[in-house]
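C-alpha cells for chain A. Residues wanted.
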C-alpha cells in the first residue's frame, strides 16, 4: 500500500500523489513553444514533484534532462562548470547519448548542444537555480539568451529554471530571455485535489475520512502541499491507526495540537525562522486590522514573500496559510508572563462557577477576566514589546489556564479577515468560540460581530463571544451586550485598557 510522502518528491508508484493534469498541460504548452521560463514556488510546495511529472509527460517528444545548482553558490567558476558538465552528461547517458565535448565555459556550453547526437529536442530543467554562483550568473544567462535566438543551430529547445520566487530577481537583473511574465507558479492544492488524494488512500486502505476532517485539512493549510501531506501522514500513521474506524475531528484536533506545539516540521520551522527575522512587521501583520499594501520594493515584504511567509492577496500583504498564522502566534507567545498566580484571586478557587450541566459557563469566565484586567492593569500586559499582540496573548493565557484546569482544550483559530484571532475551546462534545479584536472604530466594531456570526454559521455553533479591547471606551459606555445576528447569539465584552499609568 502506498503512503503519504513528507520528504522529497512524490512518486505515484509509492506515494499518494496529486497528478495536476491542468498544470501539466500549461507546462507542456510552454515547452512546445520553445520557451525559456521560470518555475517557482516556496519550499515544500511541490515543485520537484511537479517538474518530474512534467518530465515524464515530455518523454515521448523531447529529451528532458535535469540538473541542480544546489550547494554551488560559493564554488569557483572552474568547479561550477565541471559540475554542470558532469550532471548534463550523466543525464544524457540515461538516453544512451554520449558527448565528446566538455562544458567548461559559456562558449563551450553553446557548442556542446550543437554537437551532441540527440534526435529529440532537449528540455533542460535547472533545479535550485538560485544556488548559481554570482560570478557565473550573468555570463550563463547571456549565453542562454544567445542560444534562445539561434535555435536552428542546436538541440536545446526549452530551458526551465526551478526555484523559489527570488529567482525572478536573479533573472531580471541578468537581462536574459527569461521574461518573468512568462513564468509558471506552482499553486497550492485545491480542496478538490486534496479530496482526490485522500480518496486514493481511502480506496487502498478502506479507512474513511469524515467530511469535516477533509474540510479542516484544507481550511488549515489552504492546500500547502507539504502541510497537507504532513497532516495526512500523521493522522493515518500515528493517531487514527485503527483503519476499521474513520478519521474524525477528534483525531484531527490531536494532530493539529501536535503540529502547533511540538512538531519539528522543516516547512513550519523555516517559516517561523524567517518570520522571526522580521518580528515587528509580523506582529503588525498578525494583529493590526488595518491592511498593509503589498510592495516588492519593501525589503521586509520582499524577503518574507520570497520565503513563502506572506503573499500579495488582492494588493494587500497577507499570510495565506492559517497553520502558519497559528504557529507564528504560538511562536511569538511569551512562555511566561508571571501572571498565572494572579488569574485566580482566591486560593480556595474551585472553578465550579465555570461549569454548567451542559458544559462551560463562558460568560462567567469572561466576567472573571474583565475583573482581572481591572485589578492588574498595566502589570498584566507586555505592551512595550508585543504592542498590538499584548491583549490577545493576555486573554489567550487566561483562558488557556482555566480551560486546562477544567480539563478542556484551547486552539487558536484565524478565520478570514485582518486583525481577527479566535480562541476555539473544546470541552466534552461542545465547541465555543471567542473572537478577539482591538477597537479602532464603531464601523469595524459592528463589522466584527457580523463576521463572528458568519464564522459561527460555518462551524455550526449557535452562539459566540466577542471580546474587544478598547482604550477609547469609558465606564459610562456600554461594556456588555447580548444580541442576535443572523440567527446567532452574540455576547459582546468591551475590555477597557485605558489604565492610569503607575508612577515611576
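Reply:
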Amino acid at each position: 500500500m502506498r503512503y503519504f510522502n513528507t520528504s522529497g518528491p512524490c512518486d505515484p508508484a509509492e506515494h499518494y500523489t496529486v497528478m495536476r493534469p491542468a498544470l501539466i498541460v500549461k507546462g507542456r504548452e510552454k515547452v512546445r513553444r520553445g520557451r525559456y521560463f521560470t518555475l517557482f514556488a516556496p519550499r515544500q510546495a511541490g515543485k520537484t514533484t511537479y517538474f518530474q511529472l512534467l518530465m515524464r509527460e515530455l518523454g515521448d517528444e523531447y529529451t528532458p534532462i535535469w540538473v541542480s545548482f544546489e550547494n554551488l553558490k560559493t564554488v569557483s567558476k572552474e568547479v561550477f562548470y565541471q559540475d554542470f558538465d558532469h550532471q548534463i552528461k550523466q543525464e544524457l547517458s540515461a538516453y544512451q547519448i554520449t558527448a565528446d565535448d566538455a562544458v567548461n565555459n559559456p562558449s563551450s556550453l553553446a557548442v556542446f548542444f550543437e554537437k551532441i547526437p540527440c534526435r529529440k529536442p532537449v528540455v533542460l530543467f535547472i533545479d535550485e537555480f538560485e544556488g548559481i554562483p554570482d560570478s557565473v550568473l550573468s555570463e550563463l544567462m547571456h549565453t542562454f539568451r544567445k542560444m534562445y535566438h539561434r535555435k536552428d543551430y542546436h538541440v536545446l529547445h526549452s530551458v526551465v529554471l526551478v526555484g523559489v520566487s527570488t529567482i525572478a530577481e536573479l533573472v531580471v537583473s541578468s537581462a536574459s530571455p527569461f521574461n518573468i511574465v512568462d513564468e509558471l507558479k506552482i499553486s497550492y492544492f485545491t480542496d478538490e485535489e486534496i479530496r482526490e488524494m485522500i480518496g486514493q488512500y481511502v480506496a487502498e486502505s478502506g479507512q474513511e475520512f469524515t467530511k469535516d476532517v477533509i474540510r479542516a485539512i484544507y481550511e488549515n493549510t489552504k492546500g500547502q502541499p507539504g502541510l497537507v501531506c504532513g497532516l495526512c501522514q500523521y493522522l493515518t500513521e500515528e493517531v487514527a491507526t485503527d483503519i476499521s474506524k474513520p478519521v474524525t475531528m477528534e483525531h484531527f484536533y490531536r494532530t493539529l495540537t501536535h503540529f502547533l506545539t511540538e512538531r519539528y516540521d522543516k516547512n513550519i520551522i523555516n517559516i517561523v525562522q524567517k518570520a522571526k527575522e522580521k518580528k515587528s512587521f509580523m506582529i503588525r501583520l498578525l494583529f493590526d486590522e488595518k491592511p498593509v499594501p503589498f510592495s516588492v520594493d519593501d525589503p521586509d515584504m520582499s524577503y518574507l514573500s520570497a520565503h513563502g511567509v506572506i503573499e500579495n492577496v488582492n494588493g494587500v500583504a497577507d499570510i495565506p496559510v492559517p497553520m502558519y498564522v497559528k504557529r507564528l502566534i504560538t511562536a511569538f507567545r511569551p512562555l511566561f508572563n508571571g501572571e498565572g498566580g494572579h488569574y485566580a484571586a482566591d486560593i480556595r478557587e474551585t472553578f465550579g462557577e465555570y461549569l454548567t450541566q451542559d458544559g462551560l459557563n463562558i460568560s462567567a469566565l469572561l466576567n472573571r477576566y474583565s475583573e482581572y484586567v481591572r485589578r492588574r492593569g498595566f502589570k498584566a500586559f507586555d505592551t512595550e514589546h508585543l504592542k498590538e499582540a499584548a491583549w490577545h496573548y493576555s486573554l489567550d493565557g487566561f483562558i488557556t489556564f482555566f480551560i486546562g484546569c477544567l480539563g478542556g482544550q484551547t486552539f487558536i483559530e484565524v478565520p478570514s479577515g485582518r486583525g481577527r484571532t479566535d480562541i476555539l475551546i473544546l470541552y466534552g462534545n461542545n465547541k465555543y468560540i471567542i473572537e478577539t479584536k482591538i477597537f479602532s472604530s464603531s464601523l469595524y466594531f459592528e463589522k466584527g460581530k457580523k463576521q463572528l456570526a458568519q464564522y459561527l454559521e460555518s462551524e455550526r455553533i449557535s452562539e459566540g463571544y466577542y471580546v474587544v479591547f478598547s482604550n477609547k471606551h469609558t465606564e459610562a459606555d456600554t461594556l456588555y451586550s447580548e444580541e442576535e445576528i443572523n440567527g446567532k447569539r452574540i455576547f459582546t465584552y468591551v475590555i477597557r485598557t485605558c489604565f492610569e499609568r503607575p508612577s515611576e
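Residues 334-496 form one domain. The chain is about 45% helix and 15% strand.
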